[in-house]
Amino acid sequence: MSARVVPEGSRQRRRPTKQGAVLSERLIIDTALRLVARHGAEALSVRRLGAALGADPSALYRYFRNTDALLIAIADEVIGRAQEGWEASGDWRTDLRAMGRRIHGCYVAQPQAALLAAHRTTGGPNETRAVEKILGILRDGGFPDALAVRAYHAFVDQALAFAAQDAAAAALPEAAGAADTEVWSEVYGRLTPDTHPHIAATYPLLAADMTRSGYPFALELLLTALETLHPDAEASTERGREKRL
Q1: What is the pLDDT of residues 95-108, one digit of tens each?
Q2: What pLDDT digit, counting tens, does each position of 127-140 carry?
Q3: Which fold has domain 76-226?
Q4: Helices 174-186/197-209 angle, 10° precision
Q5: In the chain, which residues fall in CATH 1.10.10?
Q6: Of the spans 12-26, 69-83, 125-139, 170-184, which averages the highest pLDDT?
Q7: HSE-CB of 170 using CA atoms within 13 angstroms
Q8: What is the CATH number of domain 8-65?
Q9: Where in the chain is the domain with CATH 1.10.357.10?
């Protein structure tokens, strides 16, 4: 797509597409997500998207000025899906854990879309809603603003980084994924205590753990670290010192 501007009031397509649907941003985004899931990033083109929609490719310019604008909309949609059905419990650790797992899980469930969009900042309604929620969890949980912002940054970057890595693994062709898994038995399983004592000693645990995502444990490490930085933890430590004195 090339850059092009269409007035807001002119966006709605009045006639149905060849499939009988009325073109809309929602229909375009949902169709783009399906195409990317099936065929990868190369499916995100005007020609293929127009064909899938049964619409003239030029009609897409009424909704998205270029391919990047559509990509941003896709990224914002994935963020929105991660928040569907979420309700705050009132406990900051419980709520951050749930939000992190939702973000990670939603991207990994759509690995091709994650590869395209996990690193983008959308500024869209779903992203701004997520930022507001996460900051709210932290501030309502008693974190001062400066720490809440730094915690938000670390929390989101951790979730998205693991999501991108795990999505990349999930998006590998089946043969490549199987070959990667086989390395743990064919290479690491053959290493001896004489040359690699620590790998040999931990190999069964290592091989089992490396087939799973490291995100759940990494998230718990982050939450534990935040708990130690919480003002309540500092106050409790100070009270303990006073008692000892």
Answers
A1: 999 999 999 999 89
A2: 999 999 999 999 99
A3: Tetracycline Repressor; domain 2 (1.10.357)
A4: 150
A5: 8-65
A6: 125-139
A7: 21
A8: 1.10.10
A9: 76-226
